[in-house]
Design brief:
The complex is a heterotrimer of chains A (266), B (473) and C (314).
Chain A (H helix, E strand, L loop, with lengths): L1 E10 L7 E9 L6 E9 L7 E4 L5 E8 L5 E11 L5 E3 L21 H4 L9 H17 L20 H22 L4 E8 L7 E10 L3 E5 L11 E7 L8 E4 L5 E10 L1
Antiparallel strand pairs in A: 1-6, 1-13, 2-5, 2-12, 3-6, 4-5, 7-10, 8-9, 8-11, 9-10
Chain B lengths: L21 H9 L4 H16 L1 H10 L7 E8 L1 H25 L4 H4 L5 H5 L21 E10 L2 E8 L6 H14 L1 H6 L8 H11 L11 E4 L8 H11 L2 E3 L4 E4 L2 E6 L2 E4 L2 E4 L22 H6 L4 E3 L10 H4 L2 H9 L6 E2 L3 E2 L3 H9 L4 E5 L8 E3 L5 H13 L4 E5 L5 E6 L2 E10 L1 E4 L3 E3 L4 E5 L13 E8 L3
Parallel strand pairs in B: 1-21, 3-11, 4-5, 4-9, 9-10
Antiparallel strand pairs in B: 2-3, 2-18, 6-7, 7-8, 12-15, 13-14, 13-15, 16-17, 17-20, 18-19, 20-21
Chain C lengths: L2 H33 L5 H12 L3 H7 L5 H9 L8 H14 L6 H16 L8 H24 L4 H29 L9 H13 L3 H8 L5 H9 L8 H19 L4 H14 L3 H7 L1 H22 L4
The chains are: A alpha+beta (266), B alpha+beta (473), C mainly alpha (314).
Protein name (chain A): Transglutaminase
Pfam families (chain A): Bact_transglu_N, Transglut_core
Protein name (chain B): Circularly permuted ATP-grasp type 2 domain-containing protein
């Protein structure tokens, strides 16, 4: 299906900033589950940006502004065509080796109680991962979980929209899944992206992907308890939510603020 | 490695002077009484003048001290050096190939030669470096290999310093002092020059400029500033190379390129010899609280617009836990047997080896995996029972955090001390430059433990230095 | 050259010159306080001296009562006083260390030796008669540094920035010394022309090391008008405002030559020069000495600001 996205943020540099530098992880890539039809990132100085692929294969715009005055706005807009492949992405070329995603990070630390009982299931990796997704939902989600109640873990200093509150909860669950998978020697990575709906408000979202030597990368959404569908648009991947932060700036003043996110069927 | 006397650089076991030292021994014999003690006193004065900054910074701030200099040089024959330098070149080529691999396809991990998690979960592994293609494929351009000698033909590599090895200014100043103190010795003995180092450093740095640089690349030395203990060396090297000495605040990134702020406006920078640790290089990518670095520097690097020397993330190749795999690394990438030996190392995560270590701790040296400078280590034979008990506990609690090696009988070299000339333990750090080719300066820094019987040569713990001579054929 | 290097060279020279000038000011303040025959006169002189150095508020903040000992300690040893001799020497040395590769070994040695010797001195050993000896030593060390600079440094942009710092600071100081006399006189206008007045003018001349050269120029007894003329308008007097302004102008012109470009700072310094070149003592006194000096100091500060902007100090 065709999904139209509009994502707007802003940063207010502290007064008398000589040079503000910021990197944007705001450009989705085409792959097995999606085709980027059109996409553009707009901000002051984007014409002078350095554009390259980062360590995880994401498209980065690196921008700076000498003596910025007032808030700097950043807008990403475009249309992505998605298809439902039960979350299976395969083994894309040009990405770092899956082994990289065995690295533990602070955000993906998990207790052994979360994954210990799956140690015996290593021969059925796909089955293990599905069971793990269910278990993470049980242990970290729980019945009482409501949007925004879990500790913010999405690496953004300000959450303002409904979508962002949901994203924080989704990040917590995804981190639990990723940490457990890595502890079981399964490479797993974090995906930040957009969600169209499915009974949920449309907006920002985060989920996980784990690696299977046969099928390659497979998506798991522990928040929705499904493998990503055509409602999911992948934006970028990394070790955890922190490494997929869409906008990172120095100096960042009061932090990066999300102004608006809209995700609609086009 | 029992009770036999350690190998002496100058005298054979029967007391005859070894060939490389013959001319020197004769010269010492010819010197009138007191000549050496006068030389030693002169050396002090020369250092105060030459390396004025060694001494004076420290006198009221305690940040830099005059490191003691010993007037008796340490000599390596041309034959010995040929073997050493072949071994060193082999190591630095293999380790650079290893760095390229772990930050790309990770073939060595896939082949199961090194456990995957030992690399990707290592604190010294820098995930942000994945996929970076540094100029000429070189990650570590400036290397100081720590070598110890235990016998006529037995050299061991103690550590490969691939991050930001220091001390090269001492190698240069020691030579300059020695030539002033005993010019006649240099007439009698043909010693290979070390003075070429700054020029070779410059050539090396120029050779690894980004491919898109036209004309002569602009090189700068990036220092944390005057409060860093190696500041003298940073300014010395910048001066010798004719490069700007910059602090983080002197550089900025604009349009993905790096510039320095000059009196006539921004000037593009192509190669940065940085003496700032990875963590502090760029607050945007690494530690956000770093005030020493340049925001966006790593992005400019990643975009291919500047060369960082050494590259971030080289620490994975001189990590103490990876050290034990260096012979396999050499074999994997070069298909050769390693020329220089590693010190045999016990792996405490292995139950049998750990049991041995805990039982024999009094004979062994225990090092923290991420420690340096002689801190966080236990030298078994000179330690107390309490210290041994403490380290046993530490090893049991975190076996992966320690490596354990036998106590090596470091070679001794005659050294001028209060009581006259006496043998003292020494090590050796040759300096290697890797760019368009590998350049090894003949010589290096010889560190000497001035306390009788001591095996700790670190300057922070009472070590001194000697001029190091490589003889020409 | 890095903008920071230029800045360090500029301030290195300024701080050395300032250390010397603080020693001069204190010497004058101290001697004036000795000549005071009135109750509370001693403190009054010392305070006006600190006003001239613009450190009076910082001194007040220490909560101490102004007498020779407390003020001398404050002006020489107090690290809380950013203009104390100690603070100046420290700042000079820090600037020198940062540009170690841009200065000569002789310059470094001179500065470093001064610092090392100074740090050996215990404040309690420098009271009374010993104070003047120390102040002389400070001046000598400053001369030695300048000698090392003039004798060894390359005549390039680095030299120009050093010289600029030197003359900006010296002009500032001469203006302040003159203004101190104004402060001292203000409450006691009846004394103008009296013995005490003459004595104070003499001390002003001494503070500028100018009491003997005055005779060579004027062949006359000390007169307020002559002394002001000497320190403001005499081009042969190396501490006069006009001399400093001309040197500053020449220095900046040489930068324009080296870099092949004239910038805002060149106009500002030309204005400063014009202010002291195209005037007479009648005009100065007509306008009011204090007002004239205040404007000069402000314009002189503007030179530093403009220099910083033009050559990317930061």
């Amino acid at each position: 299906m065709r999904i139209a996205i509009h994502h707007q943020l802003s940063i207010t540099p502290p007064p008398e900033t000589g040079n503000m530098v910021f990197q944007l992880l705001m450009t989705p890539r085409s792959g097995a589950t999606q085709k980027v039809e059109r996409w553009s990132v707009e901000t002051t100085g984007i014409g002078n940006a350095a554009r390259y692929a980062d360590a995880f294969g994401n498209t980065v715009h690196f921008v700076n502004q000498m003596r910025p005055e007032g808030p700097v706005g950043i807008t990403a807009t475009g249309v992505v065509e998605t298809s439902d492949r039960n979350g299976v992405l395969g083994k894309p070329t040009g990405e770092p080796v899956p082994g990289l995603y065995l690295r533990a990070t602070t955000l993906t630390k998990v207790p052994v109680t979360l994954y210990g009982k799956f140690r015996g299931m290593k021969d059925d990796r796909i089955g293990l991962l599905h069971a793990l997704m269910a278990r993470v939902g049980e242990v970290l989600g729980g019945e009482e979980m409501q949007a925004g109640q879990l500790q913010s873990q999405d690496g953004q200093s300000q959450t303002q929209t409904v979508g962002e509150a949901r994203k924080a909860d989704a990040a917590l669950l995804a981190h639990g899944f990723i940490g457990a998978a890595r502890a079981l020697d399964i490479p797993a990575r974090y995906v930040s992206g957009y969600l169209l709906g499915d009974g949920e408000p449309p907006g920002l979202h985060g989920w996980a992907e784990a690696y299977d030597p046969g099928l390659g990368w497979i998506g798991f959404d522990p928040y929705l308890q499904i493998c990503p569908s055509e409602q999911h648009v992948r934006l970028c991947v990394g070790l955890d939510a922190l490494s997929t932060t869409p906008v990172r700036a120095v100096p960042d003043g009061n932090g990066v603020k999300t102004i608006a996110v809209s995700v609609e069927a086009a | 490695m029992g009770d036999t006397a350690p190998f002496d650089e100058m005298y054979d076991a029967d007391g005859t002077v070894r060939e490389p030292y013959r001319a020197l021994a004769q010269w010492i014999d010819e010197q009138p009484e007191k000549a050496l003690s006068l030389m030693q006193a002169d050396a002090e004065g020369i250092f105060r003048r030459l390396g004025i900054t060694f001494a004076v910074y420290g006198s009221d701030e305690g940040t830099e001290k005059l490191i003691p200099f010993d007037v008796i040089p340490r000599i390596i024959s041309a034959t010995e050096w040929r073997r050493l330098s072949k071994g060193i070149e082999q190591r630095v080529r293999a380790l650079n190939a290893f760095l390229y691999d772990v930050y790309h396809r990770q073939e060595i991990l896939k082949a199961g030669r090194i456990p995957e998690k030992l690399i990707v979960n290592n604190a010294a592994f820098c995930p942000d470096m994945m996929g970076v293609d540094p100029a000429k494929g070189v990650y570590s351009h400036i290397i100081g290999v720590d070598i110890v000698r235990v016998g006529p033909d037995e050299f061991y590599v103690l550590e490969d310093n691939l991050r930001t090895p220091s001390g090269v200014s001492y190698m240069l100043e020691d030579r300059e002092a020695m030539m002033q103190l005993a010019p006649d010795l240099f007439q009698r003995i043909k010693v290979a020059p070390v003075e070429t180092y700054p020029e070779n450093l410059r050539r090396t740095l120029e050779s690894v400029a980004p491919a898109n640089v036209a004309g002569t690349p602009t090189i700068v030395v990036l220092t944390p500033g005057i409060h860093n203990s190696a500041y003298f060396e940073h300014s010395f090297l910048a001066d010798q190379m004719g490069a700007q000495l910059c602090e983080g605040q002197d550089l900025f990134v604009d349009g993905g390129k790096v510039y320095m702020r000059t009196t006539t406006g921004p000037e593009r920078v192509d190669v940065i010899y940085r003496r700032i640790d990875d963590d502090f290089l760029d607050p945007l990518t690494f530690r956000p609280d770093s005030m020493l670095g340049v925001p966006g520097l790593f992005n400019a690097y990643r975009a291919g617009n500047v060369t960082l020397v050494n590259a971030p993330g080289t620490g994975i190749a001189d990590d103490k836990a990876v050290y034990t795999y260096v012979p396999q690394i050499i074999e994997f990438y070069l298909g050769e047997k390693s020329i220089l030996s590693n010190v045999p190392t016990y792996n405490c995560t292995d139950e049998d080896q750990r049991a041995y270590v805990l039982e024999h701790i009094g004979e062994l040296v225990v090092k923290e995996v991420h420690g340096s400078g002689g801190y966080g280590m236990l030298v078994g034979p000179t330690s107390t029972k309490a210290q041994q008990a403490e380290f046993k506990k530490k090893i049991e609690a975190r076996p992966d955090n320690y490596i354990v090696q036998p106590t090596l009988a470091l070679s001794t070299c005659p050294t001028y001390v209060n009581s006259g000339i006496a043998p003292r333990h020494v090590d050796l750090r040759p300096y290697v430059l890797v760019g368009d080719k590998v350049r090894i300066t003949p010589g290096g820094l010889t560190r000497v433990a001035l306390t009788k019987g001591s095996l700790v040569v670190n300057s922070s713990q009472g070590g001194g230095t000697k001029d190091t001579w490589v003889l020409e054929d | 050259m890095l903008g920071r290097t230029a800045q360090n060279l500029f301030w290195l020279s300024r701080y050395v010159e300032r250390a010397e000038n603080m020693a001069r000011l204190l010497e004058v303040g101290y001697k004036m306080s000795l000549t005071s025959r009135r109750e509370g006169g001693e403190a009054e002189h010392l305070i006006s001296m600190m006003q001239a150095a613009e450190v009076d508020e910082a001194f007040e903040a220490t909560g101490r009562i102004a007498d020779v000992d407390t003020v001398a300690h404050f002006m020489v040893f107090d690290e809380g006083n950013p203009s104390s001799v100690k603070s100046c020497l420290m700042a000079a040395r820090t600037n020198a260390r940062s540009v170690r590769t841009a200065i000569t070994i002789d310059m470094w040695q001179s500065l470093n030796a001064a610092w090392l010797e100074f740090s050996q001195i215990k404040p309690r050993d420098v009271r009374g008669a010993k104070l003047l000896g120390l102040l002389q030593w400070v001046r000598q060390r400053s001369h030695e540094f300048r000698g090392a600079l003039l004798g060894t440094i390359l005549r390039n942009d680095g030299y120009a920035f050093s010289q600029a710092g030197n003359f900006v600071e010296r002009a500032d100081n001469t203006a302040r010394i003159l203004d101190m006399k104004y402060f001292v006189l203000l409450p006691r206008a009846d004394l103008v022309g009296g013995d005490l007045d003459i004595q104070q003018w003499t001390l002003i001349l001494r503070a500028a090391s100018a009491h003997r050269s005055y005779r060579h120029v004027y062949h006359d007894r000390y007169k307020a008008r002559n002394i002001a003329d000497f320190l403001i308008l005499r081009p042969e007097m190396p501490r006069s405002l006009v001399f400093c302004a001309r040197m500053l102008n020449q220095t900046l012109e040489s930068l324009a030559d080296i870099y092949g470009k004239r910038l805002d700072c060149h106009d500002v310094v030309a204005d400063l020069c014009a202010m002291v070149e195209n005037t007479t003592m009648d005009e100065v006194f007509g306008k009011g000495l204090h007002e004239f000096l205040t404007e000069f100091v402000a314009r002189n500060n503007r030179v530093t600001e403009c220099l910083s902007e033009s050559y990317n100090f930061y």
